[in-house]
Amino acid sequence: MSDWLTTPLEYAFFTRALLAGTVVGAMSGALSTFVVLxxxxxxxxxxxxxxxxxxxVGLAFGVDLYVGAIVATxxxxxxxxxxxxxxxxxxxxxxxxxxxxxFAIGIAVLAVxxxxxxxxxxxxxxxxxxxxxxxxxxxxxxxxxxVVLFLLYKPLVFxxxxxxxxxxxxxxxxxxxxxxxxxxxxxxxxxxxxxxVLLIAAAVVIPGATARLLTRSIGAMLxxxxxxxxxxxxxxxxxxxxxxxxxGPSIVLTGASVFAVVALGSAAAARRALGVARxxxxxxxxxxxxxxxxxxxxxxxxxxxxxxxx
Length: 310
Known about the structure:
The protein has 14 helices and no strands. It is an all-alpha fold. It has a single domain (9-273), classed as ABC transporter involved in vitamin B12 uptake, BtuC (Orthogonal Bundle).
């Protein structure tokens, strides 16, 4: 067992990938909490598509991969915010319009301008491709994300649950919305090498969804989701090494397996609780001549909901 754990660590590329994956897993897990609570699961999917557009255009002009990706995702976040403010449109429509357009630009550029871009590695992640630059980018973004989360945790939670009430209490909900989109964009860019463009969306949804089934406290949910993100990254990278599959699918499938187990366990627990409640609940007797059956507002003075208003 120890050899199974230590053998991959003899390779520098795996150690770099493991460190970067741990940071990416923690960021994705923490971000996933707010993505799930805000019902914005589509934003990770959309911004990930923008990455490909930015990478393709950047390489066509001889720009570094991360420069093109950051420009594209930040521009996407700003455009999504601007489009979503239009009357009659919602965030999901804005995300679909903006990110698919940038994705289409990238596909068109790849078809016209020859590049050395390893499309498969960008789409699905590449364990071997994680270098020192990728590691430092992940660490830098992780530190920035931690600072933002620490400083704006309460306003972000407030705006997540009720943006209108947050505005009344002086929270700049619109600014929080924009900042959240920008932070998501930067996390997506930092995750490209490890997870791949097509699988980032799952990584910023699955941990939060799993944690949501396990707890209802947002603090506990944040902690559990972060831990699940790290665990999925570590286990997924080991499986990627031994099974010789791309790191992105391995990490996502690990997280999805945990979600499936938790979901099945939650469903079974709910059925057992319902069965116990039915077994020990007192039998309801037939209604008497005075109409004292359950729910009719009989002699106990109880009035059915809404009856006082009629």
